[in-house]
Amino acid sequence: MQTKIFSLLLCGGVTAALAADVPEPKFRAVTIDDKIQIGYGITTADVDGDKLPDLLLADKNQIIWYQNPGADKSATAGAWRKHVIAENLTKLDHVCLAAADIDGDGKCEIAVGAGWNPGDTENSGAVFYLIAPADRTQKWEAVTLSHEPTVHRMRWVKDPASGSHQLVVVPLHGRGNKNGAGVGVKVLAYKKPADPRQPWTTTVLNDALHMTHNFDFVSGASDMLVAGKEGVFRVGIDGSKSSLQLAGNVSGGAGEVRTGKLAGAIPFFATVEPMHGNNLVVYTTPVSKETPAGKLLWNRQVLDTTLADGHALACGDLLGLGRDQIIVGWRAMGKAGAKVGLKVFTSLDGEGKTWRSTVVDDNGMACEDLCLADLDGDGKLDIIAAGRATKNVKIYLNQSAK
C-alpha cells in the first residue's frame, strides 16, 4: 500500500512520530461479483433477519442482494449468494436504493430510484417501494410512488424527535432546470402508510438548491447535509425548508458529502469537489460564527487533488481510534488512461490537522459507490464498493491492527 502524509501545522519529525502511533489500515480484497453492468448504488442491511449485514446493489437493470454467508465464509467469493429481487422497473436505468429496518421486525424495507436520465428534467425519474414476499430471495412487488424528475439519491432516516422513519429522496435537478439554473431541487420526504400500496404523504424539505448530487444525515440530529452546485448546506428534516450554508463553491460546488467525528466527538464533514471532481476536502468546525446571514462556513482543508472523477465517499472508524477516517473512491469515467481506485485518509492528531493517505485499491475498482459495515462480525468496519468500468463488486475485509 502507498502512504502519504498531509500536514498543515506540524513539522516533519513530529508528523512521523504521530504516524508511527497510528496503525496502517490493511485490507483483504475479495471480489464477490465481476459481472455487474454499472453498480449505481450499494448499501448494506439485514435482508433475511439472520442478524448479518447483507449487500444490496442498484444495477442498471436489476436490484440485487448478496446474502452474507457468515464470518467463516465471508472471505470466500462464491459464498455470497446473489438474488435478483427486481428488474427492469423502468425502461431507463435504476440509479439508487435505500434499505433499513423501519418497522423493527429485524428485516429491512427497500426503496428504489429509477428512470435515470439527467438530461430530461421534465419527465424522467421514478420511485418504488418494494414489498417482500415470504421468501425474500424471490422477486419483490414494486409499488410506484409519486416523484420529481431526475431522481438520483435516497435514504431512510429516523427522526430522533418522533422515532418514525421517512424516505428522503433528492433529485439531481429541479423540474425544468436547464444547466443547473431555474427551479430549485425539491428534496422530498415520504411517509409510509400502514398499507404501502396506498398513497404516501410527501413533504418538501427544501427547494432552494440547484444540481444537488448527494446527501448525508447528521448523526443524532434532525438535519442532513446536501451537496450541490452552490456548496454544502445543512437542511432540516422537519419540513421547515430552512438551510444553512456550511461550505461555499470555492472549487465549483460539491458532489459527495459525508459526516464524521474527530477526537472528543467533534464533528467534521468531507466532500468531493466539484461534482465528479478531483479534490477530496475536509471541513472542520468554524472558529468564528461571525458570518453572513444563512452561512456558517467551516474551515476548509484540501487533502487530495489527484482524484480522477471522484464519485464515492464514506466516513467511519476502521482503526478503532475513537475517531473517523475518510474513505474515497474514484472512477475516471471519460478520462482515458487515468487510474481508478480507493484511498483511506486517517487523521493522525485527532483534530483533523494532519492526515495520512493510504491506497486501498490501485486501479482495480472504478468506484461508482461505496459503503461501510462489519461484514464478518470481528468488530471492525469493512469497505464495500461497486465499480462501473471494472464491472465488479468487491469487499475489503478489515485486517488492520486496533
Q: Would you kindly provide a brief summary of this structure?
A:
With 402 residues, the protein is mostly beta strands. 2% of the residues lie in helices and 45% in strands.
Describe the protein's architecture and organization.
It contains 1 helix and 29 strands. It has one helix spanning 12-21; strands at 3-7, 27-33, 41-45, 54-58, 62-67, 81-87, 96-100, 109-114, 126-131, 141-145, 151-158, 165-171, 187-191, 201-206, 212-217, 223-228, 231-236, 243-247, 256-261, 267-273, 279-284, 299-304, 310-316, 325-330, 341-347, 354-362, 367-373, 382-387, 392-398. The strands form 7 sheets. It has a 5-stranded antiparallel β-sheet, with helices on one face. The longest helix has 10 residues, at 12-21. It starts with a strand and ends with a strand.
Characteristic terms for this protein:
402 residues; 5-stranded antiparallel sheet; 29 strands
Structural category is mainly beta
Assign an overall shape. Answer: globular
The major pleated sheet works out as: 5 strands, antiparallel
Q: Which percent range describes the beta-strand content? A: 35-45%
User: Quaternary arrangement of the chains shown?
Assistant: single chain
Gyration radius over CA: 20 Å
